[in-house]
Amino acid sequence: MKTYPEYFIRRLLLIVPTIFGIMLTNFIIIQLAPGGPIERIAAKYTFGPGAGALNNKAVTGADSGQEGAYRETDSLNPAFVRELEIRFGFDKPLLHRFAGMVWDYLRFDFGKSYHRNEKVLNIILEKLPVSLSLALWSTAVTYLIAIPLGIRKATRDGSPFDVWSSVLMNALCAIPGFILAVLLIVLFAGGAFLNVFPIRGLVSPNWHELGIFAKVMDYLWHIALPVICMAMSGLAVLTMLTKNSFVDELNKLYVTAARSKGLTERAILFRHVFRNAMLIVISGFPTAFLATLFTGSMLIEMIFSLDGIGLLGINAVLDRDYPVVFAALYIYALLGLVFKLIGDIVLTMVDPRITFDAVNV
């Protein structure tokens, strides 16, 4: 089996400028976004009931009779604003801040959160297992359903089963995950009908008091609806990919030759066709897992109150918590590039015929 080390070495080297470009683009966009962390803190001091009674060190010229009225950032003491700028590093030039960020990120030093006195890396490592577990289970469910269904559709191509299952797959693909989540909550989680599944948290409050089997069942009980919502988004695509791959293999000459030798359809399907048809499906697993992790979990985590990396990222964007935002984007981009490379490696492992000799990267 060939490994094509030069190709993969070039791919690894290309990760560096790609990550740099992604970080630079995100840095510029976020810096231009209105309402930074200083403005957020200013709003807490100058907006809402009781604003006029705040510490005079933070607020000057506040009219206590205008509670609830918004006042601009310049109503804050300049010394206090300067203190905030130094605290967040905004007193330094943009280029200096970006260069420092790149150097820190190369060492996986993401600093501290603006709104939590805790290291960003610790926060992300705390939330990441929730999203990883959801993505892993969702991808596994998708593959366990899509592969048998796709094979069945391929062997009965053009039949009524193939037609109505395709209609069902397309309908599921057209439903956004968050709409499906709301529908499942209404039907099965205390909405207008049944109250079978919980809609909050990954485990029950008394989870640590349960036995091992009870803990496993409680965990599966909580993730059932989120996993269904996330799995359905990729089910139709993977099912049709599996079907088309098997149909293409079944129409090749080696299958005709095997039939002429008297082999049964089952033997042809699983001894000869299966390995060749599954190449593209297997090699796409890393990418599918990554897509589920990064795009499928955010809204689902919000709807089901799951404290994962997706919910953390959304809250960080809303709060202008730049260290958390940048760290999440950095880890997302890095994992995306690594998983894409892993997908290519898996493809060469399952199919020695794949060659990258002529590929210019």
How would you portray this structure in words?
It is built from 14 helices and no strands. The longest helix is centred in the middle third of the chain and has 39 residues. It is 69% helix and 0% strand. Helix 1 runs antiparallel to helix 14, helix 5 crosses helix 8 and helix 7 packs across helix 12. About 7% of the residues have low confidence. The protein folds into 2 domains: 74 residues, no CATH class; 230 residues, Orthogonal Bundle (MetI-like fold). The chain is mainly alpha-helical and 361 residues long.
For the termini, the CA-CA separation is: 21 Å
Please trace the helix and strand order, writing H or E for each element: HHHHHHHHHHHHHH
CATH architecture of the largest domain: Orthogonal Bundle
CATH homologous superfamily title of the largest domain: MetI-like
Task: Report the average pLDDT across residues.
Answer: 77
The general outline is globular
> Percent range for helical residues?
55-70%
Strands, count: 0
- Under CATH, the topology of the largest domain can be stated as MetI-like fold
The parts where pLDDT drops under 50 for at least 5 residues are 48-74
What is the number of helical segments per DSSP (H or I, 4+ residues)? 14
Strand content is under 5%
Largest sheet: none
Determine Rg (CA atoms, Å).
Answer: 26 Å
